[in-house]
Structure formats: C-alpha cells, structure tokens
Amino acid sequence: MKLKWAYGCEVRDGNPVMIRKDSLWEALGLPWQEHKVLAFVGGGGKTTSMFCLADELAEQGKTVIVTTSTKIRKPEKRLVVEAETASAVRDFMKAHEEFFSAGKGQVLVTGLSSPEGKFQGMELSELEKLGGLCDALLVEADGAKMLPLKIPREGEPVLLKGTHAVIGCAGLDCLGQTWEEKCFRYELADQVFDREKGPVITPAHAARILTSERGTRKGAEKLEYRILLNKADDESRLSAGAEVLKALGNEWAGCCVITGHLEG
Q: Which of 15, 118, 147, 182 keeps 20 to 30 A from 45, CA to CA?
C-alpha cells in the first residue's frame, strides 16, 4: 500500500489540530540519531506502516533492516535474507555491497520462516546486534491477530534493548465496533479501565488504551513514544481520527499521527 496522506498533530490556541505532512517520517517528528531502533506495537496497520517508513528512510539514503521480535506476515517482493544470527546478516550484506553502499538506501528484511508460513524473529540477543549493521532498525514487536486494537498481556510487547522510540498503532476501524470483534485480548480490559467500558469501542476507549502504561504504551514509559492512528483512508475515517485526537487531550495530541493508505 502507498501512503495516501499523513497528518501530524499539535496543540494550537489550546486545541489539538491536524497538520498535513509530506511523509510518515515527517509526521512522526522523531529526532534522528545513528543506529535508530524503532518498535511498532499495538494493533491495526503495524506491518504496513513499518514498511512505509522503511521505504521513506531508504529514499533518504538510509540502510534499513526490518524484522520482528514476534511474528509477521511473510513479506513479498522484498529483499529478504533468512538468518538465525546477526553475523549471517552481516555476511549477506558484505556479499552484496552493491546494494548496501553508503548513501544508496536499501531495505533488507530478515528473520526465519515459521511452520505456519509466517516470518519470525531470531533470538532476542541476535536481534539486538542488528542495529549496528544499519542506519535504522525497524522491529514489529507485537502481534494482534490482524485486529485494529490490542491490550497486551504479560510479556508483551517484546522490545529490544537499545530501542529509541515506540510507535503505538491502532486502526480507526475499531471505533463503534464491539470489543469481541475488534480488540485483541479484550478480556484484559480491566487492567486499563477501572469502570464498566460498555459494549462498543469509543474514541475515549481507544485513547485510553493507546496512552496507558498497561495498554499500548507498556514498556515505552521512558522512551520516545508516538501514537499512530491507521486506516484513515477516507474523510469519514479522518473525522474519526479527529475524535480520537480530541479524546487524547492536549497532553498527548503532539505525539499523535493519523495516516491513510491507497489500495495496491
């Protein structure tokens, strides 16, 4: 999928506003540093957003490695090296220096095929070495069974040591839908909400999960954190994104990004 639009958000005159940006990277507003490690967590659109950002960084001349600390859909039409160790990835890159020369820009996906046909990460200790091989290491660190919203259980997400920023994702198609249909691990909602949540997911619910230390922000309390609202693919969904932005309040509005993608 190609990016249709990306909006960064900020507070102006006491109100959160959406501002059109030229790229996902610009909208995220993350400070650049060498060997940046970015983790994508939460629900809907993590993989799409991760590859969108990887391609943008490659266009800037960055060498980007994409992987997972859990499991992702096996990527198609991507440069992939199946490897169990960081040294095997390094050897592959050395053997293909024409692709990885400084300033050229390239996206390399690494991991292992799993029995169920997905792509899984190597051992955590090996994943943590990958950052030294690239300008940016993008890691899908959470699974949500293709659902747009998620509440993590014990042991989730799986963040690497040295992670610079966490991007907490949610799909706007969760709004107005039942918890059972659209929220992975909805049965854990009591760890986020201290009162009855009601039958359907509201913008306030999504905002609470995305900012809670027991929700999507779990493990990112001392890190750069961004909220990424995905699937704002039409004007109606953009309006829904604006409702979540309002529910986030001024404390979190400046951390929010809203994106839509084109099919194909």
A: 15
Residues comprising the chain, all counted: 264
Domains and CATH numbers, the chain: 2-262 (3.40.50)
Stated pTM of the model:
0.96
- What phi, psi does 25 have (nearest 5°)? -60, -45
pLDDT digits (tens, 9 = 90+) for 190-245: 999 987 889 999 999 999 999 999 999 999 999 999 999 999 999 999 999 999 99
CB 158, CB 122: distance < 8 Å: no
> What confidence score (pLDDT) does residue 75 get?
87
Element (H, E) at 237: helix 235-248
pLDDT tens sequence across 93-120 = 999 988 888 778 999 999 998 887 789 9
> Considering only CA atoms, which of 198, 206, 136, 128 is closest in space to residue 165?
136
- What pLDDT score does 264 carry? 60
* Angle value at C-alpha 168, between 48 and 113, nearest 5 degrees: 45
Compute, in degrees rounded to 10, the torsion defined by CA atoms 199, 202, 219, 35: 140
Residue 119's nearest CA partner among 96, 139, 147 is 139
Residue 87: phi and psi, rounded to 5, are -65, -35
Contact 171, 45 (CB under 8 A): yes
Residue 261: which H helix or E strand, with range?
A: strand 256-262
d(CA 74, CA 116): 10
Specify the DSSP element, H or E, that contains 169: strand 165-171
